[in-house]
Amino acid sequence: MKNYTAFASLIPNWARFALSHPSFQDWSPLQRFCETAESYSEEALKELHDLLDQTDLLFRPFCDPLRADIGLNRWLSAEREES
Fold first, then answer.
1. Burial profile 25-63: b = 16 or more Cβ within 10 angstroms, e = fewer
2. What is the pLDDT of residue 49?
């Protein structure tokens, strides 16, 4: 998986820039930054889904435990009545 921490460090720089230039009107660089970050996150999501598909094969005939909806478990339900 790729490391995106370098991109995360750019966000505070953009925030400082925006605060120091309140009358700044051209947000197109920030728009491009957001679009790029979105494409990277979509790529990371695809990579994670691919890894999950691979681990499904390891757990056959079951699926990867990360796919389990633990909210369906009655012991974890908030509405569970105590004895």
1. eeeeeeeeeeeeeeeeeeeeeeeeeeeeeeeeeeeeeee
2. 92
